[in-house]
């Protein structure tokens, strides 16, 4: 039974299906609307970055309200009270407000969101681009590293072969090449020869003419050039058909002039020379030459050129050094040979000096004595011949000995005071007999300002004048000879700042000897002063002589700081010999010469001079003592070295010690005395008396600190000279 | 004999000694050292020389007569004699000593004996001559004369 109730029954119109569907949809919408914000909240909470939170809230509110609206809608399908309608209305109003606000907001927000998206896309692109670039840079850096390593390898050696081999190997490795080759220009410069390859150990000797267009192309630029794999320089192996040849690059390697890989006799070229480096990529690969790889090749080529030039320079200097060393060795040998020769000659001369002179003098002396005895005319003639020959021989020996001593530089002038005028007169008186025989008048002109007493080496000056005047006489058959001596005012051969001041201590003596004899060919003049050379004219052959005279005279003149020369107008026109020598002026006018038996000994210098004589030999001790007493010294005698050391005191000014006895003990005394007297002025002067005068004895004495050496037996004059020299200079190493 | 003649014969005698090589210029030096303050210098030295040499020659004879000759002892003696003789200018004695020393170095006994004989010979010669010389000098001095200075040019 249907009941009638007061409640409003829902109308279930015919479209109650529609209503049902609406009801369900509203319900689901509400659920969805409620769940979306939940999801949003959940995911936003999860994400870290979301800039528009409050938009979300707004959106959430909007959705919630929409959901609420739809939910409330569910109640409006049935009859509902006013409250529900009110709530519904409120909800709807709010929803409207919020959704409008949201709509307005979205107008601002959506473009922003969209732009974010575009920026993101832009950044992604940028990142990709940077990645690409970084890849490129890394590649370049790799390349650079390779170049550095290559350079280091190449430059770390100075050996040509190593440099080239290393280059090829390293390049091959860096660039992963199939083949790498170096072509060098040949000697003639017309061809390139395959010199080095990477893979093949013993390359066949290919040559290729240098004038190929491809080669010219490569040589024309400093860059690496891609060339065809079929060009002759690239075809290094027999081609088999299946290879697709890899790309080939060639670059020139400049060779500097200094470097020469063969021998030094290349013609001078104005064009530069190049070698060709060919690099082949592996065949059958798709690889191509990249720019950076080609740059690498160019850089390497340059480095190789530099390294090669360094190697070449090194080779040159090594060669030069080897040559120098060889020359040094040769010079050394030559020097030693020369020294040996000199030593041999000196030994020979030393022997001559002593051994040959003595018998010679004996012969001369005894012959002259023999001359003074009673002789038959025949005997007299024989003796005279003997005398003449031996005098000649003696002169010759002396000449030779003098000359070698002069050349050695061991000859020293023996200076003394003498009368110059007398000297000239003596020379003339010596020459006069011969001149008279040849009917050659000799005149002597001495300049009025010529000093009378001079200081110089009298004997040698006489020798010079005698030689010159003698030559004049020798080579003259007629005419007269004039000898002029003067003081030279200005010598055009002397240094310009030299003045002649007669009151000064030195002056230059000029002697001119003019003759009207055979004369000399001006061409022969330079030869005159050389040893042993004589002009070949027959007239002079008979005059004998060794040809040494002028040479010796020249040496003496040079020793006297002078000059000698000869002027002649030609053969048959006579000649003039002129020489200048430096002489000292003596203020004293005492007599010349050393008396053979000394007159009065000079006591003055040595009066009271305390000396000590040490000699084991009683007789020689006594003689030495007598000598010294005669000179005025106060002599203490000791006979042994111990006694000497005991007795010696600072009062003794000189100690004479005999060092004849074999052994070194005597020399020790010198050392002990040095030890005893540390202050130099207190120490007595030490003189050794020895029978040996050779150099080793002198050196020994010097090394033991002796101040002088005397040869026994000592003559009075020697002792006197030695003492005065010693006391003046405190050192003496002559007096032999 | 007349003084002048004595002086002349002294000079000649001395000259002959030099010419024969018995004495050399060292003896001249000795004579020069003799003066008023030292009138007997030469004879003193010569006497000392004679004493010394006699002793040395004796020692030498003894040493060389040994069974085994000790050259180390012989050589210093010869050296000493050489030194003394050269100090007074006994040239021939000195030269003989030089030869003697060579044989000593070679340890040649036979040679040394011969040399010793030579040295002795020369020594007695010079001793003899010098003694004669001194006698002549004494004669001159005794006659009131003065011994002439020697002038010899060599």
UniProtKB/TrEMBL annotation, chain A:
Residues 610-727 form the Response regulatory domain. CDD domains: HisKA, REC_ETR-like. GO terms for cellular component: endoplasmic reticulum membrane. Its main location: endoplasmic reticulum. Residues 351-587 form the Histidine kinase domain. Cu cation binds at residues 66, 70. It catalyses: ATP + protein L-histidine = ADP + protein N-phospho-L-histidine. Its cofactor is Cu cation. SMART domains: GAF, HATPase_c, HisKA, REC. Binds 1 copper ion per dimer. May act early in the ethylene signal transduction pathway, possibly as an ethylene receptor, or as a regulator of the pathway. PANTHER family: ETHYLENE RECEPTOR 1, TWO-COMPONENT SENSOR HISTIDINE KINASE. Belongs to the ethylene receptor family. This is Ethylene receptor. It comes from Raphanus sativus.
From TrEMBL, chain B:
This is Histidine-containing phosphotransfer protein. Keywords: Acetylation, Cytokinin signaling pathway, Cytoplasm, Nucleus, Two-component regulatory system. It comes from Raphanus sativus. The keyword Acetylation applies. GO terms for cellular component: cytosol; nucleus. One of its GO terms (molecular function) is histidine phosphotransfer kinase activity. Gene3D superfamilies: HPT domain. It holds the Pfam family Hpt. The keyword Chaperone does not apply. Functions as a two-component phosphorelay mediators between cytokinin sensor histidine kinases and response regulators (B-type ARRs). Plays an important role in propagating cytokinin signal transduction. InterPro entries: AHP1-5/YPD1, HPT_dom_sf, Sig_transdc_His_kin_Hpt_dom. It comes from the Eukaryota. Histidine-containing phosphotransfer domain (HPt) contains an active histidine that mediates the phosphotransfer. Its main location: cytoplasm. It is found in: Cytoplasm, Cytosol; Nucleus. GO terms for biological process: cytokinin-activated signaling pathway; phosphorelay signal transduction system. PANTHER family: HISTIDINE-CONTAINING PHOSPHOTRANSFER PROTEIN 1 (PTHR28242:SF5), PHOSPHORELAY INTERMEDIATE PROTEIN YPD1 (PTHR28242).
